[in-house]
Amino acid sequence: MLRRGFALEYLTLGWNVVGIVVLAIAAIAARSAALAGFGLDSLIEIGASVVVVWELSGTGGDRQRRALRMIGVAFALLAAYLLAQSSVVLLAGYHPRHSPAGIGWTAATTIAMLGLAAGKARTGAALDNPVLRTEGRVTLIDGVLAAAVLAGLVLNATQGWWWADPLAGYVLAGYAGVEVRAIFRS
């Protein structure tokens, strides 16, 4: 099970490293704040995965508590980023171009992250590892955020609804805030 935990984290790391490159190219081409923001989310997910690999490599309650706090900070950063980005995009009325590459990548990322999140939840439960379970929730948020960005990109491309993505960002920021409170209360 421990090897499975490492494999899930390494898959997440690899996906997100490639994702940063793909998202940067797509964001520049479409002048999309949503795609740029999703690239930053991928960077946070990389950080959370590195924390879990570090925690899985050692033992002890103190190490787990530090790892959980680090993941909590990643959630807090994600929530703050989503609030700021969504507000700026909404208030500025920024209209990005259409992005077929962004639509394709976020669709694939939605599927990949939701699958990885489920695997981390099962493996974390089997190992009784709260850090892996918590990082699985970070991956779940990454998958949901990918779906929200995808919906925003598709609605912008098909309906001209440029404001759909920032509204979804507020919902996700709220969820991330709930996770931050739960992590720091436990």
From TrEMBL:
Compartments, as annotated in UniProt: Cytoplasmic vesicle, Secretory vesicle, Synaptic vesicle membrane; Early endosome membrane
Keyword annotations: Cytoplasmic vesicle, Endosome, Membrane, Synapse, Transmembrane, Transmembrane helix, Zinc
Keyword Membrane: yes
Domain (Cation efflux protein transmembrane): residue spans on this chain: 72-185
Topology term for the membrane: Multi-pass membrane protein
Transmembrane segments: 7-29, 35-56, 68-94, 100-119, 140-161
Primary localization: membrane
SUPFAM superfamilies according to UniProt: Cation efflux protein transmembrane domain-like (SSF161111)
Family of the protein in this entry: Belongs to the TMEM163 family.
UniProt protein name: Cation transporter
Source organism (scientific name): Rugosimonospora acidiphila
